[in-house]
Amino acid sequence: MLSSLAAPALAYCAFQGRPDPKTPRYSFKVVKAFPHDPTAFTQGLVFADGIFYESTGLRGQSTLRKVTPETGAVIQQVQVESQYFAEGLALVGDELLQLTWEEHVGFVHDKTSLKRLRTFAYPTEGWGIAYDGKSLVMSDGSSHLFFLDPKTQKRVRDLPVVDGSRPVERLNELEFVRGELWANVWQTDRIARINPATGVVTGWIDLTGLLRPEARGPEGDVLNGIAWDKTGDRIFVTGKKWPWLFQIEVVALS
User: Fold this and answer.
1) What residue segments make up the domains of the chain, in order of their start?
2) How many Å from the N-terminal Cα to the C-terminal Cα in the chain?
3) pLDDT at residue 4, rounded to an integer
4) Buried-most residue among 26, 70, 75, 134 (CB within 10 A)?
5) 22's torsion region: left (phi>0), alpha (psi -120 to 50) or beta?
6) pLDDT at 9 over 50
C-alpha cells in the first residue's frame, strides 16, 4: 500500500506549457504505481519479457539492470566503468543497446546475461534511443533525431522535429508507442508525440503533478523514462531517482 505522503495523485492533471496552441494536448490518469529504486538515475527504460530493463546514469554509478515490476527489485545488474555516463537503452532482438552521454560510444549487451558483446561509435552526444522492430532512432539533446541501421548502428537519416513551425529542442528519452515516437523533453514534464516519418509533433502529454513534490526525495530529479508493453498495451513512466514508477493512461483534453 502507498503511504499518504508518497501516494501519487490518482487524478487528471491540468496541462501547462508553451507548445503550439494548435497541437493537441493530453493529460494523464495513473493506473498503478510500482516501487522504483530511489537511487537509480534513470536514463533509459524498456519493458520486455515481463520485466524492466533499465539504464542508469552518473559517472561511477552507471548500470544496466533487470528489474521486477511489482517490487522494483533489481534481479540482475552490471556496472558501467566509471569514466562513462550511461544514457538511453533500446532492445534490438536479443541485444540491448546502451548509449553514453559525452563519450561517443555505445555498448551492445546480451539480453540474457547482460554481458557486453561489442561497442559502436557516434559523432554526437548520446541521450535517448528506441527501436520498434524496424527503425532504430537516437536523440542527442538537440531538435534532431537520427535513424540508425539496427545492425551496424550507422546513421541513415536525420529527422528535424518541429511543433508547428518551431524546432523542439532537448529531445531526450525515446520510446515507440503504437507507431508513434514519444520523446521526453529534458527538464520538463512534457512528452512529445512525434510522427516518425515527418518529425511533426502530433500531440503533447503533460505529466505535471505525476510525482507529488512531497514524494520527491532530496535528490529527486526530472521526469525521464518511458516504456511501452506492446503485448499488454501498457505505458510506463518514471524519473531520475524517483521512488515510484507509474503505469498511466493518456487522456485527451478538449
Assistant:
1) 25-252
2) 33
3) 31
4) 26
5) alpha
6) no
CATH of domain 25-252: 2.130.10.10
Kindly report, residue by residue over 132-168, the tens digit of the pLDDT: 999 999 999 999 999 999 999 999 999 999 999 899 9
Q: How far apart are CA 79 and CA 96, in angstroms?
A: 14
CA–CA distance, 189 with 76 (Å, rounded to integer): 30
Q: In this structure, which amino acid lies at residue 66?
A: K
Phi, psi of 225 (to 5 degrees): 130, 110
CB 210 within 8 A of CB 33: no
Residue 90's CB: how many other CB atoms inside 10 A?
A: 27
pTM as predicted:
0.90
pLDDT in tens, 54-78: 999 999 999 999 999 999 999 999 9
pLDDT on residue 3: 34
Residue 69 to residues 36, 54, 72, 87: CA-CA distances in angstroms?
A: 8, 11, 5, 21
